[in-house]
Amino acid sequence: MTGLEHRLLGANPPTVTRLGLGLAALGRPGYINVGHGADLGPEKSVEAMRANAHAMLDEAWAAGVRYFDAARSYGLAEEFLGSWLETTAHTATVGSKWGYTYTANWRTDAEQHEVKDHTRPTLERQWPETLAALRRTPDIYLIHSATLETGVLDDARVLARLAELAESGVRVGLSLSGPTQAATLQRALEVRVDGVNPLSVVQATWNLLEPSAGAALAEAHAAGWGVVVKEGVANGRLTARATLPKPITDLCARLHTTPDAVALAAALAQPWADTVLSGATTQQHLRSNLSAVSLELGLEELDALQDAAQAPAVYWQERAGMAWN
């Protein structure tokens, strides 16, 4: 087994491994990752998807991964993870999210794959659904893709319920998406319920194409928050399947490594990043992602990689245009 470093999630338990496995691409037949459909192959029944998810979880576990991330909207990801956890005698740190409902009905060509709603009734419905699917209480429970526009960070009823969960021992927080991630996180840092902020974990997109939330994430980490990095390979746009910026291809050639390893190593090099998620769908891709852990990038290399960044509005417009497959 390959050992992975464990660390506290921010200033408090639970612990997480530096690399975690996200199940966004493993729990449903359609996702926006480049090449997702081909990676899964022609057989995308529930049984086939469950078998593949369990194989991926086995591979990650053997490599030392002990942090796993799911969400209500990731199809059957929570159920796949929960049934797999029942087969192992070991414990893992588990995170999940509420606020989106999966609506694609196991179709890759659905007009709508998920519906967003950040109101108290959705929270009250999805929390017991998560408990039943995981067959355990998640260690971390996040508002899924919180934004200022939904008003969830000013909803007293939602915040009061999240405070109750926090008091019970669950680390609650939010995941972020879109070009205003930093502004949303700044507002989240100001939340108070009876004088205390129940939120203490943030999961955000940070990668070599879209690093704009970095300063806000550093601030959150300095305040004791746990920081989880998602979309480190930009849904496949920072892999060998994409046309890559020259700083990345140059570094890959010099280090004899893969673009995904460079991208994830850059995320791991951020001092505020507690854990970085792999979103791999195949065991081959997971092994390539895991090689990032042993890839140390120096300041000169990290500085050169900054030239790969896009304007946030451009990055998120391109992401919105990616096809479900």
Automatic annotation (TrEMBL):
- Please indicate which superkingdom the organism of origin belongs to: Bacteria
Coiled-coil stretches, from where to where?
none
Please state what the protein is called.
Answer: Aldo/keto reductase
Tell me the ranges covered by the NADP-dependent oxidoreductase domain, including all copies. Answer: 49-307
* Pfam short name (any one): Aldo_ket_red
Which InterPro entries does the record match to this protein?
Answer: AKR2_Oxidoreductase, NAD(P)_OxRdtase_dom_sf, NADP_OxRdtase_dom
| Matches recorded under SUPFAM superfamilies | NAD(P)-linked oxidoreductase
Organism for this UniProt entry: Deinococcus puniceus
